[in-house]
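Table S5 (text form). Sequence records supplied for joint modeling of the three-component complex.
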Amino acid sequence: MSATEPILSLDRLSVRLPRGADRTHALSEVSLQIAANEILCVVGESGSGKSVMANAVMRLLPNEVTIDGGRVMFESRDLCAASAAEMRKVRGARIAMIFQEPMTALNPLRTIGDQIAEMFSTHTELSKAEIGARMLALLADVRIPDPKVAAKAYPHELSGGQRQRAMIAMALALDPKLLIADEPTTALDVTTQAQILKLIRDLQQRRRTAVMFITHDFGVVAEIADRVVVMQHGVIVEHGTAAAVLNHPQHAYTRQLIAAVPPLKAPPPRPLSAENILTMSGVSKTYRTGGFLGRGARVTPAVRNVSLNLPRGATLGIVGESGSGKSTLARCIVRLIDPDAGSILLDGQDWAKLSREQVRRETRHIQMVFQDPFASLNPRRKAAELVAQGPIVHGTPRAKAIADARELFALVGLDPSAGDRFPHEFSGGQRQRIGLARALALKPDVLVADEPVSALDVSVQAQVLKLLAELRARLGLSIIFITHDLRVAAQICDLVAVMKDGEVVEHGLAGQVFGDPQHPYTRALLDSIPGGAFAREHAIEAV
Amino acid sequence: MDAVRRYFRSPAAVAGLVLLIIVIGMAVSAGWLYPRDPLALAGRPLIWPFSNPRFLLGTDNSGRDIAAQIFYGARISLLIGGVATVIAILIGVLVGAFSGYYGGWVDTVLMRITEAFQTLPNFVLLLVLVAVFGSTLTTVTIAVGVVSWPAPARLTRAEFMSLRNREFVQAGRTLGMKDIQLMLGEILPNALPPVIVYASVVMAVAILLESALAFLRLSDPNVASWGNLIGLGRDVLRVQWYVSAIPGIAILVTVLAVSLVGQGLNDALNPRLKGR
Amino acid sequence: MRILGLAGRRLAASIPTLILILIGMFLLLQFAPGDTVDAMMAQMGGGDAATAKDLRKFYGLDVSIPAQLGNYLWRLVRLDLGFSSIYGKPVASVIIERLPPTILLMTASLSFAFFFGLLFGVIAARGVNRWPDTLISTLGLVFYATPSFWFGLMAIVVFSVYLQWLPPGGFEDIGTVQTGIWRVLGIASHLVLPTLTLGLIFLAIYLRIMRASMLEVLNLDYVRTARAKGLDETRVVTRHVLRNALLPMVTLIGLQAGTMLGGSVVVESVFSLPGLGRLAYESVVQRDLNTLLGIVFVSALLVITVNFVVDLIYARLDPRITAGG
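The corresponding structure-token record, covering 1144 residues in total, follows.
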């Protein structure tokens, strides 16, 4: 990849944040170059300033956020000094952009074709017929099945992957010199992500477009990058070719990020108890929506005939993409949702057939940890109170419950004095620890964890997973661990079940399922993991 | 306490608060400044404002002191507006909470009733209520409250519907909380701020409804009400237009004050949405 | 076709609401002191108990309340609203005579409020926190706080009494018989002040919601996409913001149809317009309960009709609606 004349070069670019933000600058003196026909990955955790950089190049920063130094050189002029009218000629035509969430990035009230055609009508003088033809060709180019139908569709009528393809078609409409992709696959399922990454790679090579690809995932970096820039707190801490950065990281932060990427290899199997603490058989749940007197009703089988066992002290991973029914299953197990059929035996008692009132009384045996550390804590209660709530409901005197809560804080690695603070005063990882402490306060036998680390940055993710493993050993917990991320599942689970369309397609020991997958869907999932080869090598290094 | 500081940073909100305090001051001081019955004959009818120092704002067509009626009218407007708002918010929160929390047939039934109230023009319903139950201060206040609850009910329902599936409420359920604990302890404190802000809208509308009723001479004729006075002034509108004009300004200022305070509260409680 | 089906289903769903209203109102009016016969007797200047009994029998008031309710609903099905003793003719024909001014007034006020609410809302949102926004928002607050009947009276003082530009009330000039275009112009000049008076508060509400909704949409991701495409601000607003921002306002029109009809009671009284609202007021004062019940029925029908149209427009604007079913 010989670096020729750079397409875009940032020269000591600084971006100022409004007063009251956690730091003065989102970007401080950032310099980088992108050449034609190369993919530059900008990697960093949330708050590193990587998205601000993308928007700064496009001059699409929010009102209070301003560029206060440096230059953005593109086609031999400084975009920071360009007028609004000049910028409009650059945007879309010379530099195009795709975003993280294609559902919200497309106008819900206008058809896909209309929105793509707008690119041409804004920047060219082409006739309507010509625009229509080009638009269909583009849709075919991004391999959307049946472009004619897709062009007439509204965004909500397409799948997430197809929407992102449409976004890409729109961005590439006028053959821009530079494509900025801001986490374009983060909101997608792993198999879709693999397809979109491949598509971006193919199109980029065919059109020799320069790509600035923003991501937080080193797996994606391994998959797609020519060169890599690592950002932390608005500063570039390391840059180099993909191979150099991935294999020989120099900066401590880079090393930490790479080490935190979960390796795709199960740790050596632990001995499992012969006794099952939880036995599910034939669990099913079907949703019925809408419909009037049976007309037009839609029936969605969310969970179909699932039978699984959880040995005492073991961790059962349930993996699947969105819509696979894994979250519904988790909610059936804790009876937030009532299953239609099947039994869930916990210590010999059929949990699926208990009345609501019985569930309420017995609920301490089985507890849940939720996905979103921001939504899962009542913002109006103090941390200690949140943790003490469960025991108080079940009759523990308030003072004792609060005192116990402070002990639990130490157990999950929080400062016991933090109990007097409100949830918004904690970071995401800390909140997830509070959620964990809340669930543990009732001394449950089984813990159901629904995507407990998906909303966290990778480095925090690793810490929380480590804590979970420690607690499991110390308290003898049995865990059901729901996740979409096979790498995470490989790290912590003894047993793994793979779900697709509400059914378990494969289950067994983690080492077996990941090492020797039997079902084609499991194989497809494993193949789709970004930077799969890197992850495996990396695993060998880590061992 | 951030909210308080944010509130006082907005000039409009502060202006609203000052106006509201003035109106409340008028209501409180009415008995002290004008110890006589405001509806009693005080002097020559139709004295123009500022022409006689004894009647600063002049007299109406039957020779009653307009200033005294304005001061006592503040009492009536605030009383009816306040109590009716409390009634409307209480009914609204109750209906909205059950409807939004339980969903299903409870929701269907309660929302049908709410829709029925919204389909019926509220002022027509108010007329019917007054026609049936008479127009004393109490019945008018209750009637205004009863026609004003559907909007807060819908708002509360929407809040409860979105909050009941939030993870912290589900967490409460997995901890074994009863429905009533979840509704009161977990959902309500989070659902209440927008409803409280909306109370200012309800109060503004309630004051306007009462004055319209009084203007049509369907409210309690035995109390000094701004609407009554405007209705009275209508007979002499062509020349002595001030009889109607003055109480109208009083209503405008009061409603404006309530709206400004409401908007200020909204911006203070939801800083993210400031300026909307 | 799907849009029509959807709106049709919503329309069907409003039938229970309508029945609920009628039953509620009927029962409510049972609490009223005195019935139609009492009102008639008072009108006739009193009468003996035997006459009253005969009249009650004639009007079907001698049976039990559930039976009366059943009879009433059955008559409604046949569009028979009963007989108004005060006006001496069927309620239905009294109402039909009074309907045109109200419908004209509502249409005019709604159009006025919608158009200027939209315009000012967009201007305010475009210049958020600058002087046009401050001016428009302040005026909006003042309009919102203005009691409509008072504004009407003051408008009469200014435009009819002092300037003598516009008539102070009524629907047409009585005395001179006008035809064709002159009649239309005559009616229009009578409706200018009532329209402004009724529309003012709704103008304030619409401009506020339009401004808020514009500001919200302007912050959405797809507007950033539109800017990233290189569209200029005018095109961003006309193509990507306006239609989306209109949705909450359209919803509001449906929700407030009832409030507007209620407002016309006051406005028609101020300007002596012979409309439905004034009829409602007169029936209350004269205790003509049959007519009052008929007005409730017709105004509920009007509100349901407005909501049906609003549903159609909404579904036309938002393709997501029909997909949900």
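Note: Residues 21 and 42 of chain C are 29 Å apart (CA to CA).
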